[in-house]
Amino acid sequence: MATREALWGYRDEFGDAFGRTYFRRFGPGVASSIGIGTYLGDPTAAVDDAARKAIALALRSGVNHVDTAANYRCGRAERVVGEAVRASPIDRDAIVVATKGGFLPFDGERPDDPSAYVRERFVEPGIVDPADLANGAHDIAPDYLEWSLDRSLDRLGTDSVDYYYVHNPETQLSVRSRDEVYDALEAAFRVLERRRVAGDVGGYGVATWRAFRVAEGEGPYLSLAEIHARAEAAGEAVGPDDDHGFEAIQLPFNVAMADAFTRANQRAPAISPDGPPISTLEFAHEAGLSVVTSASIGQGDLAAEGAIPADVDATLAGDTAAQRALNFARSAPGVTSSLVGSTDPAHVRENVAAGTFDPLGASAFDAVFE
């Protein structure tokens, strides 16, 4: 698991090679504000090899935040992350490794009949209860998450992960009420609190797609205040003290998907009991949560010249459109780290080089939306 001393030591290795605030508070110390994601790519040996090399290059170059999930690339992504981290000259305790659980993963390749696979691999052995499934492939019940975390640790080949996210909990809203989803999350958090006390998890959170970006009350909406309160309750229930490990959220954020900054959709009774709703980014900042952005360059769409609106593009630093798009995401007030995935060494170098430019200041970022 990452340690304060090793994380700060990694930062010091790079001296002044990067721009202002490239390394930011994360976990027990600091980590790069550009992280490498592992979502995209076919589940093939060729992509495994390319991803392994890309992660290794990123770790050597100033990126010490690696994000994956149990279901990415049919379970192959976690294995590759583990292999790359173990083979790296960078010490494991200088790397923030995050993964997620919730979606039922395939085992190395997509089966011909996914429904039969879920039934034979998960339902019949009793790993999941069909009543807990949403869309036939999503489960956040405590027993399943415990099982999933153990399998993730096996695939990663490590005794612990720095962050473990409950993956897209809003998926459960297709089959149950919001109150039932909040109850399910609290039960999941109790599991993660126990695993945190045991040293298997450094901290935990939720990784979402739409839950924190849509209007209050809309179909996939979830209240970050309520989720945070459920984590506090889980921390109090599990002990050994009243603390809790809910430390981070992950959500899409880029120049075309800026809802987490622009939409005031979160009530904040603990922050301002009688005040108006605030944005997800503002709530996270006030609650002391780290924010990790996914889709930071729109899964490559924003890397094309002209994809960023000209007036916004003119405010951003970077030699390429991809660098400027990445620096937009990193500039949002409250953002800790922005993920970008690549298996191309040239793209990895381009993404890392984005960190040599200064992000926008808070007032300059605000001005983009005036």
UniProtKB/TrEMBL annotation:
N-terminal signal peptide: none
* Domain NADP-dependent oxidoreductase span(s) in chain numbering: 34-211
Q: Which SUPFAM superfamilies match?
A: NAD(P)-linked oxidoreductase (SSF51430)
Instruction: Classify the source by domain of life.
Output: Archaea
**UniProt xrefs under Gene3D superfamilies:** NADP-dependent oxidoreductase domain
Q: What is the lineage of its organism?
A: Archaea, Methanobacteriati, Methanobacteriota, Stenosarchaea group, Halobacteria
Q: Which organism is it from?
A: Halorubrum trueperi
Name this protein carries in UniProt: Aldo/keto reductase
